[in-house]
Design a protein that fits this description.
This protein has 338 residues and is mostly helical. Helices cover 65% and strands 0% of the residues.
Length: 338
């Protein structure tokens, strides 16, 4: 590796965000191709086709960026190695639509961060387009979910008579004193984390049925159990506040045990979801003044970090973890010189 001081080179943030996008979209192409080979509902099929074209466009543009830089193109995932599109159906059309909806939301969050670190105009425009496409995907999913009676709205709040200010320290309590009602932001985060875990439980259930390796199967079953546990915890807090809870999706998994996705792809997707959950829980913790709710998030984050560490060790064991862009180890360079 030789130093290059061209100020128009991709920065570390740009290279990393492009790499992350490539990995995510190359994986998305695999499951969208598979889903499109089974989807029966024509309206859902149209949404999945839009999502597939998005991901294919992203992968092509990132390859162009990397080729211009002389940067190695990530291996990512491929139809040939990581999916059997002719395999029996593993999930229902309803799951496909909900999965696409979450794909759009996750993408929007990632691209929103990426664009704030984009220095080069072409990279900035790329992520701007990604954001617009994700907004469109979310809107398509929302409209179709609402049309089919499958969309879970966050609960409504009563309209206050006037503006008020917190004047009691009990606003922060939650352990021993009487618990105040949840704030709108606390409800939003609890509700969204319930939804993500409900879909995650269905995903882990399906993946565990088709895993080829016994260790991978056990890891995925553990993920299903964690998702169910976290869903129950978030649901209980909402119920205690007389707040409705979202739907669950375990019934959208078929009984198929045939190979669909490679263990490597399922482990990548699962560990990526774990990392996202830690991020979302961190946001929930930061936005929860009620101490008991914050304590719940702290405990669950610790559980997820242990689970994530075990997942990383398993991927390293089987040499499935593709190394992300990183800085140079100067000490190692010095040793090589000797």
């Amino acid at each position: 590796m030789h130093p290059n001081h061209d100020l128009n080179n991709l920065t570390s943030a740009e290279v990393t965000n492009l790499w992350n996008t490539y990995m995510n979209d190359s994986g998305a192409i695999c499951h969208l191709k598979y889903e499109l080979s089974h989807v029966e509902d024509e309206e859902i099929k149209s949404v999945l086709q839009y999502a597939l074209e998005m991901s294919q466009s992203h992968v092509k543009q990132i390859e162009d960026f990397y080729n211009q830089e002389g940067h190695p193109i990530p291996r990512g995932f491929s139809i040939e190695e990581d999916v059997d599109v002719s395999a029996p159906r593993l999930f229902t059309d309803v799951y496909f639509l909900n999965s696409a909806n979450q794909m759009g939301k996750i993408g929007l969050g990632n691209y929103g961060i990426a664009i704030t670190h984009a220095t080069r105009e072409d990279v900035f425009q790329f992520f701007k387009t990604c954001i617009n496409e994700s907004v469109e995907l979310i809107n398509k999913c929302k409209e179709l979910l609402m049309k089919k009676g499958l969309y879970s709205k966050t609960p409504y709040l009563p309209v206050p008579e006037n503006v008020d200010f917190v004047n009691q320290k009990s606003f922060l309590s939650g352990f021993f004193q009487e618990k105040r009602p949840l704030t709108g932001e606390e409800i939003m985060n609890l509700y969204s984390n319930f939804e993500r875990n409900a879909l995650g439980s269905a995903t882990m259930m399906g993946y565990s049925q088709i895993a080829q390796d016994n260790e991978v199967m056990k890891f995925l079953l553990r993920g299903k159990e964690l998702a169910n546990k976290h869903t129950k915890i978030f649901g209980e807090i909402l119920k205690q506040n007389d707040t409705p809870i979202p739907m669950t999706w375990d019934s959208e998994v078929t009984d198929s045990t045939s190979y669909v996705y490679s263990d490597r792809k399922m482990m990548f997707y699962s560990t990526a979801l774990i990392a996202l959950s830690i991020t979302y829980y961190g946001a929930g913790l930061a936005a929860s003044p009620r101490r008991d709710v914050g304590a719940v998030y702290s405990r669950l984050i610790t559980e997820l970090m242990k689970y994530a560490d075990d997942g990383a060790k398993l991927m390293i064991k089987y040499e499935w973890m593709e190394e992300p862009p990183r800085s140079v180890d100067r000490d190692e360079l010095a040793k090589k010189k000797d």
